[in-house]
Here is the input.
Amino acid sequence: MKAHDGFYIDGAWRPAVGRDTIDVVNPADEQVIGRVPAGTALDVDTAVRAARAALTGWAATPPAERAARLTALRDALAARKDEIAETVTAELGSPLAFSQAVHASVPIAVAASYAELAATHAFEEKVGNSTVLHEPIGVVGAITPWNYPLHQIVAKVAPALAAGCTVVLKPAEDTPLTAQLFAEAVHEAGVPAGVFNLVTGLGPVAGQALVEHPGVDLVSFTGSTAVGRQIAATAAAAIKKVALELGGKSANVILPSADLAKAVNVGVANVMSNSGQTCSAWTRMLVHRDQYDEALELAAAAAAKYGERIGPVVSARQRERVRGYIDKGVAEGARLVAGGTESPREQGYFVSPTVFADVTPEMTIAQEEIFGPVLSILRYEDEDDALRIANGTVYGLAGAVWAGDESEAVAFARRMETGQVDINGGRFNPLAPFGGYKQSGVGRELGTHGLAEYLQTKSLQF
Ligand code: NAD
Here is the structure.
């Protein structure tokens, strides 16, 4: 894994204007594994200019040609699958098997889906006496988090390129090496110079410069609700469009007729995988009072099994944040049935898989996003109570419902204020729209809904 000491701008690696750098740390052993340049507003300006200069040509490229470049990008990512998995493991800390199965594989499927959509999407439609053209929105400023470093990038860049937009990407400071690998794959795929540009750097410097830049038409951001709010305010002043994928506090609702053991085991795995750093994780498990004690036993056993396999969280800062929430849970009266603040290993930013019982809906750990391997189990009295608890946060990103009968689960899911619900452990679908109700975001990613974020319409009347 070699780090580039420049930015990928206008089809080549170019030196940074400033001298500041960011150390990349392996969270499993706390060693510095690389160093990347920290971009300034000047670097961002150079990248945005390159993206603007490339826009007219790329927007006019036939969709079939854009599809061909995306297919080549898919192939380039597939060819580097092992390198990608190793790089994600090195800078994020996720176990290699998870990096291979999820971090490296899902982006390949998403890139493939946009190669196909670019070729098949109707970029023109007839509405009465009008022809409606679906045109690229322009230059996209993409800002991504570290938790699924490559997926977050591909879920923005692939639809943007399919739509005919050009992009400047500012990836998370904790995981810039995966972003550099992605830029190499874009280059290998023969995407024309300036269509995709990468500037690594700090959020409040390079990220903010990108949001404020008048040459950016759309800011597509995934990250915390706090930063999303700030970005939306800045963009609003310039009447700039935003797409925001923000935080979550999703509910896993286990109805009394469900297969309890399955629902609890899958629920625990959902929270512990990626060390709890999944925005759509079902971090609140809702169990009927008659099944509560049995669910606690099952959850504690499932969490203990994870103890050996779990990776570290991304950084020392993140570990402190998660520990702070565990302390707060105890202070507010929740009961630990697995894990706690003690580190399971001497080295690395590890947090034990943690399960809280006796969590009530108003507690901090039931309301705020923890972003670590911490599950809260809440007790409900009846279905209406379960619904009130499930909908009782500012978030609405994802969720799950389990019942003996699919239609019973679906009836409950229809009443949930959230963007995605998995029914009885439904599988991930890379074509299904993903995004939030309420403060979990604005807009959708993936599939045709994700493509639509990067298009604007023009109506011709005849
Ligand atoms: P974060 O908001 O701190 O950072 C995300 C990105 O924004 C990073 O690239 C960062 O450098 C940049 N940034 C920070 N300050 C900025 C500023 N002032 N202007 C412009 N850019 C700025 O979030 P994080 O800690 O990296 O990621 C965790 C958060 O992301 C969690 O809240 C999680 O729920 C959320 N998330 C949401 C989704 C989703 O799809 N809804 C997916 C993954 C993560």
